[in-house]
Design a protein that fits this description.
By secondary structure, this protein is an all-alpha fold. It has one domain. It is built from four helices and no strands. Helix 1 packs antiparallel against helix 3 (72-101) and helix 3 packs antiparallel against helix 4 (104-122). It is elongated and about 60 Å long. The termini are far apart. The model has no long low-confidence stretch (mean pLDDT 86).
């Protein structure tokens, strides 16, 4: 396959992946929001006092565990996590395509960008 064809295919793949992930994130976040409103929509909130987030929503594993048990706040957080992961996944797709093209400069740049994204997410 010619390099130009690989480049076009990887751009189309990355675009499709982004579209699908944004749709999934919207559905998950919307479902969590609707579930939250149904379960506590009548509750009157006091915005004069800040309530700290519950501990299980502070880690990725906690969010996933609680979302699988259909906790509405965790489901909303999971949708946001999916949205946050989109740039990382897009860089991964391009990194794989640059490896296939054997374009070492772009592989190096993509790896650096991947490292910066991972550092900003996990540190």
């Amino acid at each position: 396959m010619e390099n130009n064809e690989i480049e076009i295919k990887s751009s189309l793949t990355a675009g499709r992946v982004v579209q699908v992930l944004v749709l999934i994130a919207a559905i998950v976040t919307g479902a969590g929001g609707i579930a939250y409103l149904v379960s506590s929509g009548n509750h009157i909130h006091s915005y004069s006092k800040f309530n700290e987030i519950t501990p299980f929503l502070k880690s990725i594993s906690g969010i996933i565990k609680c979302a699988l048990s259909f906790n509405s706040k965790a489901v909303m957080q999971l949708g946001v996590l999916i949205l946050i992961s989109i740039p990382l996944i897009r860089v991964m797709v391009f990194l794989v395509s640059f490896v296939k093209e054997r374009d070492l400069i772009y592989v190096a740049v993509s790896a650096i960008v991947m490292g910066v994204l991972l550092f900003s997410i996990f540190v």
